[in-house]
Specification:
Elements (H helix, E strand, L loop, with lengths): L2 E8 L5 H9 L5 E2 L10 E7 L5 E7 L11 H17 L4 E7 L5 H14 L6 E6 L11 H12 L6 E4 L12 H16 L40 H5 L4 H7 L9 E2 L9 E5 L7 H9 L3 H4 L13 E6 L6 E6 L12 H14 L1
Parallel strand pairs: 1-4, 1-5, 5-6, 6-7, 9-11
Antiparallel strand pairs: 2-3, 3-4, 8-10, 10-11
Length: about 350
């Protein structure tokens, strides 16, 4: 029998046990975890899928989300558990659970401690967003489309995701379609033969509504959006006659930002790095033809901190897609983002890309 070890972690109250029960279709029974040592903050549940796959779900003790940070001792214990699993049992998948809403510092800490520090980003990681029974329609995928870039801007990137509800029919019969969709997505998630190289929305929205086919093995995003040309007055304002003549032979500007999840190996990625106010965003605006507002140009004396933003641009000569990466400004003592934080954010972006 094929066996898969899946680590399930997240804040307290996000529905980790409910997710496991929904996958199994019944109330699961905790088994002994003596192999990891007594007293550790983990429970093991065994589920045998219809395909014959045996899945050992290792449910970690939830970290409190209402205190702002995860207690140091709890983080240390969770890291010890995952290290032992990596040595003794192997880890085939991390499922990081969260409820729809704002991303807390505890979520970021847990992700950093387990996925980055212990697993060194080498174990597939899935995001399961629970509590979406209140979303319109049965799809629930709209939450991801709206929030995926905000999640990545907090330093969190995932190989695959699923938007679900773990309510039961008894609790709310009106969301029956969403419950069926959620169970299908979760079961497909743990049954996938591999997680690297798949589109990020392989199971959500999944085969029923997704029309995505991978462009290359490393692509993990949605299909490219049609290029929207910017209005002529935004493109040509302040240019000389020679510059205007040069622009007339170029392809239309992209006119839109792009997502990390849209990157492909064929893209040429250019990082713009410098101190606050040096004109990085203005450069993007002039090159691509999008408005200063869309590019994030700020004319305030005290600009607000920002995260990494990416913009696509088609090269006028060979048609290659250039992705311009606008980074937060360095060396500004009045900003809320320290230089070390900015460097860590850029490094994390590069490692994930």
């Amino acid at each position: 029998m094929n066996v898969r070890n899946v680590v399930v972690l997240g804040e307290c109250g996000v529905g980790k046990s409910s997710i496991i029960n929904m996958i199994s279709g019944a109330q699961t029974t905790k088994t002994s975890n003596n192999v990891l040592g007594e007293g550790l903050k983990v429970a093991c549940y065994v589920v045998v899928m219809e395909s014959g796959l045996r899945v050992n779900f290792w449910e970690m003790k939830g970290f409190p989300g209402d205190v702002g940070t995860v207690p140091t001792r709890l983080l240390r214990d969770l890291k010890t558990i995952v290290r032992r699993l990596l040595v003794l049992r192997n880890v085939d998948l991390l499922i990081f659970c969260m409820r729809a809403g704002s991303i807390t510092n505890a979520v970021v800490q847990g992700y950093q401690a387990i996925y980055v520090d212990v697993c060194a980003r080498k174990v597939p990681i899935a995001l399961v967003v629970n509590g979406l029974e209140g979303s319109s329609g049965s799809d629930m995928h709209g939450w991801w489309a709206k929030n995926k870039d905000g999640i990545f801007n907090r330093g969190l990137a995932f190989d695959i995701h699923a938007c679900v509800t773990t309510l039961s029919f008894d609790e709310d019969p009106s969301v029956g379609k969403q419950i069926e969709t959620s169970q299908r997505r979760l079961r497909e998630l743990v049954n996938l033969p591999d997680y690297f190289g798949l589109p990020n929305d392989r199971v959500c929205p999944g085969s029923e509504s997704s029309q995505i086919s991978p462009i290359s093995p490393r692509e993990i995003g949605r299909p490219r959006e049609p290029i929207q040309p910017a209005s002529p007055d935004k493109v040509t304002a302040g240019l000389t006659s020679n510059e205007l003549e040069s622009l007339s032979s170029r392809p239309p500007p992209s006119g839109a930002s792009t997502s990390f999840y849209e990157l492909t190996p064929d893209d040429v990625v250019v990082f713009l790095v410098g101190r606050t106010g040096c004109g990085k965003s203005s450069f993007i605006s002039r090159l691509t033809g999008i408005s200063e507002h869309e590019a994030g140009v700020s004319h305030e004396l005290d600009p607000k901190p920002k995260h990494i933003n990416t913009f696509k641009y088609q090269h006028p000569d060979d048609g290659r897609r250039i992705v311009l990466v606008d980074t937060p400004g360095f060396t500004d003592p009045d900003r809320d983002l320290a230089d070390d934080t900015i460097r860590a954010e850029i490094t994390g972006w590069l490692q994930e890309a």
